[in-house]
Amino acid sequence: MDDDKGCCSTQLIDQDGNFNVLGIEEFMKKVKLAECGLSYAVVSIMGPQSSGKSTLLNHLFGTNFIEMDAFKGRSQTTKGIWLARSVGIEPCTLVMDLEGTDGRERGEMDDTTFEKKSALFALAVSDVVLINMWCHDIGREQAANKPLLKTVFQVMMRLFSPRKTTLMFVIRDKTKTPFEILEPILRQDIQKIWDSIPKPQAHKETPLSEFFNVEVVALSSYEEKEEQFKEQVASLRQRFFHSIAPGGLAGDRRAVVPASGFSFSAQQIWKIIKENKDLDLPKHKVMVATVRCQEIANEKFGSFTENKEWCQLDEAARCGPVPGFGKKLSLILERCLSEYDVEALYFDEGVRSAKRKTLEEKLLQHVQPAFLSILDHLCSGTFDKFKEEFDKALHGGEGFSAATRSCTESFMSLFDEGCADSVIQQVNWDTCKIRDKLLHDIKGHVALVRAAKLSELISRYEAKLNEALRGPVDALLDGAGDDTWPAIRELLQREIQLAISKLSDDLSTFDTDEQTRDKLLARLEDFARGVVESKAREEAGRVLIRMKDRFTTLFAYDSDSMPRVWTGKEDIKAIKKLARSASLKLLSVMAALRLDDEDDDIENTLSLALGEGTSSPTSSSMAISEQLASNTWEKVSLSKTLLTPMQCKSLWRQFKAETDYTVTQAIAAQEANKRNNNWLPPPWAIVAMLVLGFNEFMTLLRNPLYIVVLFVAFLITKALWVQFDIPNEFRRGTLPGLISLSSKFVPAIMNLLKRLTEAGEIAVAGGDAHKNPSPAAKSYQVGAETESDLSSASSSQVTSVENGSDYSD
Ligand SMILES: Nc1nc2c(ncn2[C@@H]2O[C@H](COP(=O)(O)OP(=O)(O)OP(=O)(O)O)[C@@H](O)[C@H]2O)c(=O)[nH]1
């Protein structure tokens, strides 16, 4: 393909009509045709076989087409269509050498067919068509190129070409006939042929000049006048310099396909020609532009996806935010698109722009996930930072609403800055959605924190209320009386007011709406009422114990809180009545929840039905008793009922049963006390004793010795009395007292005698009057011992009284 001079050529279409795709691709790369844009021209040559076409082209353009060896005779050398680049001509000029047209070596039909096809191809592709002809054929009816011209004109009609092709007739082997004479004859011949060919209706009157610029040049014989030939060719060569300039041989650029699309365009044209279809060049140009622009776009897209810078950016975007992402990506995209613009510059503008748009869309679609990833990172990062900062602000003591406002504003603007840094200039991607998401997340978090804080706050208030209410309510219920519930109501109202006013102040820093605020305040109020209610219910559950406590307090203790000693003077019945009515009062207080100031007749009902002194059943008391068999109180709703009438009745019954024993015990204790304290015989016995014992009394008065004896007897009796603790022994009854005394009597006498003996021995051993006390002295000692026993006996009596109090307790 290459020659020494740097020219290269390739067979574009072989003699069988096959297009050499690989060959032309390689050729294009070698001559760097794609870089030429529209600055290139295509020249082809047609003419009879062995008419020196290749020789002319090689001299004219410095190509290396195979020439026939003059010494071997005139046989076909050029087969099919060959393509070469001219040497030393600017702009780049492609030269096509076509197979000769005389058909000496092909069958008539084949020849004609290939001739026609190659002629059509040459006309479709070329800016300048050289028609090689022998000088001696001018004006001849049987000229060799006459059928060729006819073919050229006929196929021209099928091209729908919007441009004028230059037809340059090269007269070879010019004779001595002056050129000025030859040219008009030739033009006449051409006109005749043009007129003779059948034309479609639209071109019936169209002159030849509308389709072609006809040029005529004459050259001397190469074989005979080589020098002149070369000079003439050199001058002709000059006309091919800057041929694409306006007015040049290839000045009409309207149908030119950009150089990078030449291969494809030629391929497609040949395909259409081979299929014998009509060749619409304008449409073909659009088609070529479409395919080529698509190819360029694909290539640019491919190189973008492999672009190192982009790959790094994409990877970084998936891992986290990338500073300057938008700028960097815009630059890479811009570079890619401008490369496309440069390469597709010369293709049809409509197609080019459409394909550019498609490429841009494809590129943007490709980079969008990275952008979205950046936004996601930005959104989540901003949200995390917001949470952290918000938390810090709240812990730092900043008010909730102030912290919310300042943190939201600053982090949303931080996000906006990040967005601005990430957006690319090629497209205005909507970041509102992700912004809205961030705002939504922030609001959601604020709402959560607010809810938690409010819950914490409310819990704190509830704990305070609980503390402030439970104890006092307990105390108030403990002393249940007429003013218990008013006092509880007052306490409740006071605490609620206090808590609500403080909570209202606290809520003002949370930016809560009116509805939420009211709800929270109502919740707090309900809670306070709930505390009281639960306490009251709890106490109602223990009412029986409380009633018994109250009863015991009033029954077993006096007004000075001293334990009662049932001496016999107390009116147990009255005390019991008082204690029970106080317990009944407690029951009536505990029977219902009276947080709202509403009247009820529970107390009245209970005292009428259960109170002391309601023994005689009247019609009204019967009705009240019936009411106690119910589950509800009149005027009291079920929700406010702590103890139902039936429960009250049952509780009262239980209470009475359990306290009756205490009363019985008290009565027994009182009876016993009475018995113990009454030692005098009955009055009749005293009178009888006085009457019957009058004589003995008188005798005693008359004889003082009896008195002494009686006195001693009294002392002994008294000593025995104390010694045996007679009152105590008889407290448990006469018979047990006698049995107990009988068991103690003998040991006590023995003990007494033993002591007397010991005292006598001491007196005998002493021998003197001082040391031997008289019986009177002994009796004194015994008396002393007796006194000490007496004091111990009296202390034991006190203990026995105290024991009696404890019991009565
Ligand atoms: N008489 C004459 N012969 C020429 C001229 N130029 C070339 N020849 C001779 O014509 C013969 C054919 O030359 P080519 O250049 O191969 O002709 P061709 O038209 O390319 O031949 P094909 O490719 O086979 O159609 C050669 O022997 C040339 O020496 C010329 O100007 N006049």
Distance linking N and C termini = 138 Å
Rounded to the nearest angstrom, the radius of gyration is 70 Å
**CATH superfamily of the largest domain, called what?**
P-loop containing nucleotide triphosphate hydrolases
Please give the count of helices.
Answer: 26
By CATH reckoning, the class of the largest domain would read Alpha Beta
Overall pLDDT level: 83
Ligand identities: guanosine-5'-triphosphate
According to CATH, the fold-level topology of the largest domain is: Rossmann fold
Q: Please tell me the CATH architecture of the largest domain by its name.
A: 3-Layer(aba) Sandwich
- Unreliably modeled segments: 1-6, 103-112, 769-809
- Tell me what portion of residues adopts beta-strand conformation: 5-15%
Helix content: 55-70%
Return the structural class.
Answer: mainly alpha
When the domains are counted, the total is 5
Summarize the biggest pleated sheet: 7 strands, mixed
